């Protein structure tokens, strides 16, 4: 969020030489757009002692999203919170108290005159109405910050001279590189001997590490791969594990296979740049669990409806299956690189593999399934949590993601799946690992690295 609104520092009154007086804290006016409340309905209460202003068009947009397959729940939650304030305090066009630090909220019915904006911005759309409210308030002397998860709107606000910030409530800090799920640890040679003999050892350093943390153990006589168990002991990870014929080549991939094949881990997160094997490992682990180990009945792959550049499924011609073809083809391409066409046909004929748009998860409870949510970096945090809540009995879910390839402009680099990882890490049901070794051609690896460095 715009750094959780804080009280300004006390400073001496201008011109005072003998006596220092505390100035009153500067109260800012935060104008929120609809994307903020769809991401976090509780954002209304997260601005400390400051003033929160909702342009009335935001209420209209929330109303229009009430029945949206992914965002409807959050729109209804935000509207219910506003209605509770209305019942408690009466009219919302006057400031009403929110939070515990003296903040206020109001629905702004006025200050909508678009002439405050340059002529090129007077488009009559909802963004224009929100910008007009913020600009008119700023012109009257208020310390205004426009808060949005919509990147184009923040750029427009900056272009008309407004302070604009991305909403980042409950996300990681800007300087935090994120949890990788891997660490190196120096140990004694005798520790490695014990680990190879018994398969498990106690290490004092591991007790404070998150559950399922992958470890590369280093000694003067060799190395070993291990992970921290739910019992906080260090368990050996063997290099010969395989899933549907796929072996891990790097330390991260071997740790990932351990997570994917562990029935005690219900949620696995696989991060990494394009070409590191995330989707291939998830699919192979799913087919291993369904066809070889009989742990689940089918593999279900959900893909968000964001193509490169953000095009949505509804704008493509044809039936649902024809519309889904470009998205499903990516899954079949991955399978085709690992197994024969006959195996793929058998899997499909027996109903062991489904590829569906993510909108189909609403209202479903997925039992006895190995669920893969592909391209999860394009999902907002609340949508992702809704997806996880659909997982039923005897099911496992794998999230694959690359934050450098976000196609949803409302999802920031430190939001969505990254925020969910930070919330879940350390829980016995959750494991995460970031893959780093590219398995694609040198050309693909080069371009991927360039994209990573170009990402805003």
Strand residue content = 15-25%
Gross morphology is elongated
Question: What is the number of beta strands?
Answer: 19
Radius of gyration: 25 Å
CATH architecture of the largest domain: 3-Layer(aba) Sandwich
- The CATH class of the largest domain is identified as Alpha Beta
Looking at CATH, the homologous superfamily of the largest domain is P-loop containing nucleotide triphosphate hydrolases
**Oligomeric state:** single chain
How would you briefly describe this protein structure?
The chain is α/β, with parallel strands linked by helices and 456 residues long.
Features:
alpha/beta; 13 helices; 6-stranded parallel β-sheet; 456 residues; 32% helix; Rossmann fold; elongated
Question: Can you give a write-up of this model?
Answer:
The protein is an alpha/beta fold and 456 residues long. It has 2 domains: 29-166, Rossmann fold (3-Layer(aba) Sandwich); 249-454, Rossmann fold (3-Layer(aba) Sandwich). It has helices at 34-39, 56-64, 72-89, 126-139, 151-159, 189-198, 251-261, 278-292, 320-336, 341-349, 381-389, 417-424, 442-454; strands spanning 29-32, 51-55, 96-98, 103-108, 144-148, 163-166, 182-186, 200-201, 214-219, 222-228, 234-236, 242-243, 246-247, 267-272, 298-303, 353-357, 369-373, 396-401, 430-435. The strands form 4 sheets. A 6-stranded mixed beta sheet has the order 3-4-2-1-5-6. Strands 16-15-17-18-14-19 form a 6-stranded parallel beta sheet, sandwiched between helices. A hairpin with a 4-residue loop joins strand 3 (96-98) and strand 4 (103-108). Helix 7 runs parallel beside helix 8. It is elongated, with a radius of gyration of 25 Å. The two termini are 17 Å apart. Mean pLDDT is 82; it is low at 3-24, 171-176 and 307-311.
């Amino acid at each position: 969020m715009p750094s959780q609104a804080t009280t300004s520092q006390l400073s001496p009154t201008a011109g005072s030489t003998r006596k220092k007086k505390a100035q009153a804290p500067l109260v800012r006016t935060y104008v929120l757009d609809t994307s903020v409340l769809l991401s976090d309905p509780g954002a209304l209460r997260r601005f400390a002692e400051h003033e929160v202003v909702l342009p009335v068009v935001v209420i209209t947009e929330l109303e229009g999203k009430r029945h949206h397959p992914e965002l409807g729940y959050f729109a209804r939650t935000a509207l219910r919170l506003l209605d509770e304030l209305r019942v408690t305090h009466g009219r919302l066009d006057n400031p009403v108290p929110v939070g515990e630090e003296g903040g206020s909220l109001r629905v702004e019915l006025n200050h909508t005159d678009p002439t405050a904006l340059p002529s090129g911005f007077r488009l009559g759309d909802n963004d224009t109405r929100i910008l007009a409210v913020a600009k008119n308030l700023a012109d009257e002397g208020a310390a205004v910050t426009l808060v949005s998860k919509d990147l184009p709107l923040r750029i427009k606000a900056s272009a008309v001279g407004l302070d604009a910030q991305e909403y980042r409530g409950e996300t990681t800090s800007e300087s935090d590189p994120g949890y990788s799920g891997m660490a190196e640890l120096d140990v004694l040679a005798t520790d490695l001997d014990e680990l190879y003999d018994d398969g498990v050892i106690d290490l004092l350093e591991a007790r404070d590490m998150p559950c399922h943390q992958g470890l590369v153990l280093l000694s003067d006589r060799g190395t070993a791969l291990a992970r921290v168990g739910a019992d906080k002991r260090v368990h050996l990870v063997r290099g010969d594990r395989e899933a549907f014929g796929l072996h891990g080549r790097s330390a991260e991939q071997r740790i990932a296979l351990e997570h994917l094949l562990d029935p005690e881990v219900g949620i696995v997160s696989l991060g990494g740049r394009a070409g590191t094997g995330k989707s291939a490992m998830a699919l192979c682990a799913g087919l291993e669990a369904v066809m070889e180990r009989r742990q689940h009945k089918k593999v279900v792959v959900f893909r968000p409806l964001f193509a490169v550049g953000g095009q949505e499924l509804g704008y493509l011609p044809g039936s649902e299956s024809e519309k889904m073809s470009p998205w499903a083809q990516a899954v079949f391409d991955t399978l085709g690189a690992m197994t024969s066409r006959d195996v793929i046909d058998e899997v499909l004929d027996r109903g062991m593999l489904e590829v569906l748009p993510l909108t189909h998860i609403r209202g479903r409870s997925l039992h006895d399934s190995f669920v893969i949510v592909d391209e999860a970096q394009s999902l907002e945090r609340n949508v992702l949590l809704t997806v996880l809540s659909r997982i039923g009995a005897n099911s496992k879910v794998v999230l694959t993601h690359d934050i450098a390839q976000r196609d949803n402009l409302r999802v920031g680099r430190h939001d969505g799946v990254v925020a969910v990882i930070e919330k879940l890490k350390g829980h016995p049901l959750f494991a995460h690992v970031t893959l780093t070794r590219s398995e694609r051609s040198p050309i693909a690896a080069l371009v991927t690295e360039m994209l990573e460095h170009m990402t805003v």
